[in-house]
Design goal:
32% of the residues are buried. The N and C termini lie far apart (63 Å). The chain has a domain of 216 residues: Rossmann fold (3-Layer(aba) Sandwich), CATH 3.40.50. Helix 6 runs parallel beside helix 8. Strands 3, 4, 5, 6, 7, 8, 9, 10, 11, 12 and 13 form an 11-stranded mixed beta sheet that branches. Strands 1-2 form a two-stranded antiparallel ribbon. By secondary structure, the chain is an alpha/beta fold. Strand 4, helix 5 and strand 5 form a beta-alpha-beta unit. About 2% of the residues have low confidence. It is globular, with a radius of gyration of 22 Å.
Length: 321
């Protein structure tokens, strides 16, 4: 016997009236809690660029890959990959874009590799305006970033902030920092402390919304990947919490060196890297580009096809590893 189709009908309740009355249950003191209550049809990704950290240099490849113009405030983004795949370069492009939009950059430099000269001379950024948390220790670095954010918000509650953690994989847990030789417990400690740090940042995002309920903090975590023993593929470092809380994960993998010949010697110009979107909870279209080849150089990132077209008469060569 064929099963009858169940047709869902619109509720007889006045949905807008329910929202209005439910909001009225909150006191003036808790008005911010009521402010964000709404109906599902009003929850859409914003098209206004003021909700994103972006630039022309970023949008030309970031939007192709993700469907978004840039990093969205109120979300955690992750760029993961093997060493020398261009992760930190893309992070610095976002830092430069943030400064152009008067967004305060807080950099947790857990690798100790931030190059102020490159950021200034090649990226066009202002290194003296970057607030740096230089600790390699997860708990200490997380506390430093939190102190920066709270201080900024005390001075200017409306100030927008970009937190960049570069990188998760290079950060030491408390057991490692104390020269503890019990390696069996260190991976678990790392996962717990990364979880603590990323949840703390998530709390900061939620706490410091503006008076209209809009988010004012964006988070970009740079991470390493490692071979997933016993199965195919790679996993990000730092445990499941970071992966779970990340709205978008972009994986980058170096494909080849890009060289020029000068005085009969090969000189490295940059690298060609493959960028793939592993996770994207913000894209709502039918399809998007599965992967893109990018050229990463000291000056930033470009579409590999554009670089090839612009250098047809030059001596650029790809050296596959």
């Amino acid at each position: 016997m064929a099963r009858e189709k169940t047709v869902k009908t619109k509720s007889k309740l006045d949905i807008e009236e329910i929202v209005k009355l439910a909001k009225g249950r909150f006191s003036k003191k808790d008005a911010s809690k009521a402010l964000r209550m709404t109906t599902g049809d009003k929850i859409v990704l914003p098209s206004d660029l003021s909700y994103y950290i972006t630039s022309q240099a970023l949008e030309k490849f970031w939007k192709l890959l993700t469907g978004l113009p840039g990093l969205m405030f109120g979300r955690i983004f992750q760029i993961a990959g093997k060493p020398d795949s261009g992760k930190s370069t893309v992070a610095q492009l976002f830092m430069k874009a943030a400064q152009d939009q008067d967004v305060q950059v807080v950099l947790w430099d857990a690798e100790g590799k931030f190059d102020s000269t490159r950021f200034r001379d090649r990226m066009g950024g202002l290194p003296d305006n970057v607030l740096v948390a230089p600790s390699r220790n997860i708990l200490e670095g997380g506390a430093q970033v939190t102190a920066y954010v709270k201080t900024i918000k005390e001075l200017d509650p409306d100030q927008k902030i970009l937190i960049v953690w570069d990188s998760v994989g290079a950060s030491l847990n408390s057991a490692e920092d104390e020269e503890n030789d019990d390696y069996s417990r260190q991976p678990g400690v790392t996962a717990k402390e990364v979880s603590w740090a990323i949840r703390r940042f998530n709390q900061l995002m939620e706490k410091f919304r503006d008076e209209d309920g809009n988010y004012t903090i964006a988070i970009l975590a740079i991470n390493q990947v490692y071979a997933n023993i016993g199965s195919v593929g790679f996993k990000q470092k730092g445990g499941a919490e970071l992966e779970y809380l990340s709205s978008l994960i972009l994986e980058m993998s170096r494909k080849s060196n890009l060289t020029k010949t000068r005085n009969k010697q090969k000189i490295k110009h940059g690298i060609t890297t493959i960028a793939r979107v592993k996770k994207n909870h913000l894209f709502h279209g039918e399809d998007c580009v599965a992967e893109l080849d990018l050229v990463i150089s000291a000056s930033g990132a470009d579409l590999a096809q554009d670089v090839k077209n612009n250098n047809k008469n030059d001596d650029l060569e790809e050296d596959t590893d």
